[in-house]
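Continuing the batch. This is chain 6 of the set; chains 1 through 5 are on the previous pages. Same settings as before, nothing changed between runs. Recording input and output for traceability.
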Amino acid sequence: MPEFPIKRDQLQPGEVLCSYCTALCCRYFSVPIDTPTTREDFDNLRWFMMHGRVTAYVEDGTWYLCVYGDCKHLQADHRCGNYDDRPQICRTYSTNNCEYDDQGLHELYFETPEQVWEYADAVLPPKRKKKSKLNGRISLPILSH
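Output for chain 6:
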């Protein structure tokens, strides 16, 4: 866990938490997704995760897809280069519950497609084996002399 230069309760009146942060909120976005319930759902989630820096996690029972990538307006000093014209989602974002000092703990967290598949195997019923056309008989090769 990284050390942060100041704790929230140490902020002086008028001080902004963002002044001490490395713009964590500008380096990814998360979108809620439907809870995967089938092998196809988990396979689709694996597919998403095969496209760059993508993770999946569950928080408060909701599944999220997390895509890592810096905002194109993020400047070297961790400030917004488009502050006056930033999107509404950025305007309404609050530091009250931001990830500044978040431990990053989730109910479930998947960093690789293989982890997703392993989880699916653990929570879904086993795959059904296709019935053989032999109706339980053993098929042996016929040898010619």
